[in-house]
Amino acid sequence: MKTDVLIAGAGPVGLTMASELSRYGLSVRLVDKNTQRTDKSKAIVLWARTLELINRMSPNCADRFIETGLKTESVNILSGSEHIGHADMKEVDSKYKFVVMIPQSDTERLLEEHLATFNIKAERQTELTDFKETSDGVTYVLKHADGSEETAEASWLIGADGAHSIVRHKLNKEFHGSTLLSDWMLADIYLTGVQGTPAINIYWHADGILALFPLQGTRHRIIANVGESSGPIGEGNRPAPTVEDIQRVLDTRGPGGIKAEDSVWRSNFSINERKVDDYRSGRVFVAGDAAHVHSPAGGQGMNTGMQDAFNLTWKLALVSRGICQPEPLLSSYSAERSPVAKVLLEFTGRATEAALLRGGVKQSIRNHVASLVLGFAPVTHTMANLLSEISIGYSDSPLNAHTQHPRHGVKPGKRALIRENEPPVGFGDAPRFALFAESNNLPSALLLKYSALLEATPRAPLSPDSLSLVRPDGYVALATKSGDWNAVDAYLNQFLPKAS
């Protein structure tokens, strides 16, 4: 039987894709060449915006991730014991006024358990080896653990298969960017002597950077650069750091008094900063690390990939179910998400460059300027919203209404505020837009015409005298004055299938 969607890669991005598409009633196959989900911590941060979107997946879904992880409320930049900058997550414009520190192994487990509620599980030791787009779908070849091959069909293919994506390679999409010519150490290790409440602490030192991320108990993630390299860089090209190596870095770059105990995982890695230009080729899409890879500065790579999934799935569901025509919905995926990755690459690149700045005078100027700028409350508030990805929006999206009325409510492309005691937009078994408007004189014909696209009941306006139409992923599509039902009709009508 032909499947609606084949997803290659069962990491956090692929699992999120599969869960959301299954929630919307599409048939899904999720394949991964690995024998099991990761047992490593890998990506360890869930930011507020990702938690908001996770909470649409099922009632209180985000709570399971929060309960499993560690809530952390601060991000600090330090030099020894000198405080240079601070971002207080309690200032984030979300009910999730914290960051959740959770190993990727737990994130994947929780996503697998959620996916299982739709009777779907990842097909492990199953590798996508080839595919070809047809007029109405994609024919693909899978290689199974016993060496046998299977040829099958899907209407759509999503490559969430990591930085070495077979989907990206088969599409001949160039991975633009560069690799930093430096080696880095990574460890999950138990530490004693860490002072204060749990916080993400980033230390700038003459020798380089040291980043400490708290996990449960005394377990921490450590990231530090270990110098430039004239030869091959990354994992496998030098021995994994020893506990003694880690202790030397802690003593040199840290505040003092921190002792390294038993380690859980130790490795080397290199930093790649790359992305493709276009996330789509016909009926084939790429997402997550298959589309963009980043410096770990900020811990936003996995979050960005999962948000790729939240962006694409509602659009693909509406098209696959015949509710909407393919364009402009499907082309908007890359148009919206590619700029987000571009900005993130620039941000993490500059952050890494600043942290690795060499020279005593330059470092002193950097520390002074950073301390001065980050001492202003508006700056720290902006920094908290930036890190938490609450500030992400799609101001240049092709899905934004052309008739914008900035004085009436939130501008199109911006995230709509999520109010307490109100279900998140996009919940349930179908992706629907939500009207935030006074219902006086609401034409019943409008709700009837768009019953498959609109929630049945309008919600209270986002601001006085305003009418807002909010997309299933929580971003404002249209903002106008109260009672402008013609604008709503004109906007939604563009998505309906055209009569042949």
From TrEMBL:
Keyword Hydrolase attributed: no
Which top-rank group of organisms is this from? Bacteria
UniProt xrefs under InterPro entries: FAD-bd (IPR002938), FAD/NAD-bd_sf (IPR036188), PHOX_C_sf (IPR038220), RIFMO-like (IPR050641)
Q: Which UniProt keywords apply?
A: FAD, Flavoprotein, Monooxygenase, Oxidoreductase
Name a GO molecular-function annotation.
Answer: oxidoreductase activity, acting on paired donors, with incorporation or reduction of molecular oxygen, NAD(P)H as one donor, and incorporation of one atom of oxygen
- Domain FAD-binding stretches: 2-347
> According to its UniProt record, which cofactors does this protein need?
FAD
Q: What is this protein called?
A: FAD-dependent monooxygenase
* Biological source species: Tunturiibacter psychrotolerans
Per the UniProt record, the lineage of the source organism begins with: Bacteria, Pseudomonadati, Acidobacteriota, Terriglobia, Terriglobales
